[in-house]
Write a sequence for this structure.
């Protein structure tokens, strides 16, 4: 690879740091940009250089935003007494495609001792403060009523379950209801190939027709 | 997606212009960069912004380089009488991993009328000039001998075959030998699943043991 000019090698190396991008994909991307009429290295470069400019977390729900409070927290038609707790900002977008009308809290990760992720690395204190303060930020915003329910929507894997248990312990004396997303069969699933944990969850959570 | 800050949306859109990157992958990449400790949007952004700086094509073989002539063309130990013609710069890197000791010519594409790629869009004239001049650039470098062989290594698909035929017609009166890479079974292939064109190529090109 030393045959390639250093700036090409460097761009290939940087692309390889992205999730799911190996050497071949990184090479293809760099040469695509060098030749493409649709995108250019300068356009993507400028978009990335300016990515973090004026970007911060909503003081209430920790969603990425360019304002102090995000659009969802500012929307008076949302049910501010229900907080859906997610791992990442993209999961907010996913739940917004459903009919969910409450508000959110973004943890920015899950508990994972192996990766050095403890409660201090996550936005856990902000969630606890928010529940203790009763539905608004601790920064002196008026209380409009307590939190009725916290729905923990971390992924159904080892870290997600551990994080959910930890949050339940932290919140059980602050909010009346701490719930977890249902386990069950995804739409279009084939029961024959479903794993036993999913099937048990679907059985335990069965509903009357 | 309008829920996301505009600079994030823009970066996601730019990533989607890369080959093989859909919306989900683009979203993952942007949020990975926002959070990652390994890479950062600024580092990748700077690498891309500077990608084309001081980058041009070797005056002889059209390989990407930061110099006037690339390292391979400058290397006196290479056999300058054999030219391997490839579609893209990355294919030079691929052949360098073999024992090939000749030099190269990069076309920067293949003939493809549907995509508006004619001979003028490719580095065909440069190849013809090179063969006519006898192995060195037309810029006054001393002639050390004519080209003995041009090996056309375009991909074995419709465009690659058409490009190979076109080059053979253009070069047949300039160089003694215009050859094409062998068709045959790739290493590790399963004959049962090989297509008929590959099998016919392998039969036609059979060698004595």
């Amino acid at each position: 690879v030393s045959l390639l000019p250093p700036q090409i090698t460097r761009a290939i190396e940087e692309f390889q740091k992205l999730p799911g991008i190996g050497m071949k994909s990184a090479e293809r991307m760099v040469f695509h940009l060098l030749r493409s009429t649709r995108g250019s290295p300068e356009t993507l470069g400028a978009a990335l250089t300016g990515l973090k400019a004026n970007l911060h977390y909503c003081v209430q729900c920790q969603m990425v935003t360019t304002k102090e409070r995000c659009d969802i927290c500012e929307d008076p038609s949302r049910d501010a007494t229900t907080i859906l707790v997610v791992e990442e900002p993209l999961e907010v977008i996913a739940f917004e495609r459903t009919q969910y009308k409450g508000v959110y809290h973004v943890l920015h990760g899950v508990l994972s001792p192996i990766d050095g992720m403890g409660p201090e690395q996550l936005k856990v204190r902000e969630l606890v403060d928010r529940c203790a303060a009763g539905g608004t930020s601790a920064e002196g915003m008026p209380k409009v009523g307590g939190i009725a329910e916290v729905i923990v929507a971390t992924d159904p894997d080892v870290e997600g379950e551990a994080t959910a248990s930890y949050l339940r312990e932290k919140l059980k004396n602050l909010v009346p209801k701490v719930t977890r997303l249902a386990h069950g069969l995804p739409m279009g699933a084939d029961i024959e190939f479903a794993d036993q944990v999913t099937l048990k969850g679907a059985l335990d959570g069965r509903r009357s027709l």
In short: The CA atoms of residues 57 and 70 of chain A lie 8 Å apart. DSSP finds eight helices and six strands in chain A.
